[in-house]
Amino acid sequence: MARLEVNVDHIATLRQARLIDEPDPVTAAALAELAGADGIIVHLREDRRHIQDRDVRILRQTVKTRLNLEMAATAEIIGIAKEIRPDVATLVPEKREELTTEGGLDVAGYQDHIHQAVQQLQQAGIRVSLFVDPQPEQLKAASVVGANYVELHTGTYAEARSEDEADRLFEELLAAAAHARQLGLAVKAGHGLNYRNIKRFRGRKEFDEYSIGHSIISRAVLVGLERAVREMIALIKS
Ligand SMILES: CC(=O)[C@@H](O)[C@H](O)COP(=O)(O)O
Ligand SMILES: NCC(=O)COP(=O)(O)O
Questions:
Q1: 115 included as an active-site residue
Q2: What are the catalytic residues (predicted)?
Q3: Which CATH number fits the domain that encloses residue 151?
Q4: What is the domain extent for residue 105?
Q5: Which protein residue has the closest C-alpha to ligand 2 atom 6?
Q6: Which ligand is in closest contact with the Cα of 41?
Q7: What is the ipTM, given to two decimal places?
Q8: Could you write out the DSSP letters of every residue in 75-102?
Q9: How many domains are contained in the chain?
Q10: Per-residue pLDDT tens digits for 15-69
């Protein structure tokens, strides 16, 4: 059965908007695990816009399932990963000006650099996943550099403007997943998956795992709002 890893970056985004200590992604991670999540994802961005070093260090001690650290393949962040030793490191491309990750890692174009990063992380006992677009040359390169997993970038699928386009892009993802498996890579999928577009994936054996963050945290805010208001009213009026 496919597994779900939950990305809690978006809890940290809310905390950083006030630069205070709540909501805490560490607490969110524990709740996600209690609800059955198979792993917790955080993206320690170079600009530290949401997740902080402190979060990753504490999560390393508290996460009971699997900690997946999304990261750029830079010397600074590789050094932090080697010290903290998440269960999995997912290498992603990073741009300072982007709102969120905009595309897959160009493994084919930077094969030597990515190979070195994969080796350094694996030598520290960390399994490595590469976040790639569903393109044959990227999957082949991911296999050549020795990655353990690929995470297929589902952002383009998630942004499809019609059902026909979504069907076509989903077929591309299925073909890429089958190709990755033939190359011996375990297959994850993530970015932009939500409560509607996940339905095509239901029951598909091609994918081992899903990485989902924004839609789960967005829904949590709304489904939890009524209770939060009631609790405040009780404090004010009782
Ligand atoms: C790699 C990916 O698709 C997402 O996990 C994304 O990079 C999360 O990072 P942000 O929360 O900074 O968008
Ligand atoms: N790698 C994808 C991820 O962790 C979550 O992406 P999103 O659901 O926040 O778009």
A1: no
A2: 43, 70, 191
A3: 3.20.20.70
A4: 3-237
A5: 191
A6: 2
A7: 0.92
A8: HHHHHHHHHH--SEEEE----TT-SS--
A9: 1
A10: 999 999 999 999 999 999 999 999 999 999 999 999 999 999 999 999 999 999 9
